[in-house]
Amino acid sequence: MKNKSYFLILILLFSTDYVSGQCLEIYAIRHAEKSENDPKDPDLSKKGILRAESWVKFFEFVPFDAIYTSKRKRTHQTATPISKSRNLEIKEYEIGKEEEIFQKELDNQSQRILWVGHSNSIPKFVGRLMNKDLGHIDENNFGQFWLVQYCKKTPEKNSFQIFQLP
């Protein structure tokens, strides 16, 4: 509960520059736990399905404008419960071309997007936005979420926070 209260305070603090449509909040999560049923493109495990469903409650107060996933089944399956709860279509992105999507969302005056990615792709794209080397997410860590503020016209306001959930 303490993490959720802190999270809501951060949303309010980040939100002041969003009225103008010049900034974008990116809520990035890694796909949930995967099964071993397919080495190339596995489904979520039972534990992963439960985690995907728990994200709905965690993000219940965040009014997403869009939801993006990679082309992998596990990212789609992680985003589906949130997508259904919000009646939002899941859109796919191509890894390495994230900035094109951000520009499109800024042009559409979107304010908040959910981004579901992978242990190596999330730190890479956040790092490109922040001009930092952020390494990677540990392969066994499925409870991390990144809150990114990206302001195209005022890059000095760009920032990110990493939260670790159980």
From TrEMBL:
Coiled coil: none annotated. Transmembrane segments: none annotated. This is Broad specificity phosphatase PhoE. It comes from Moheibacter stercoris.
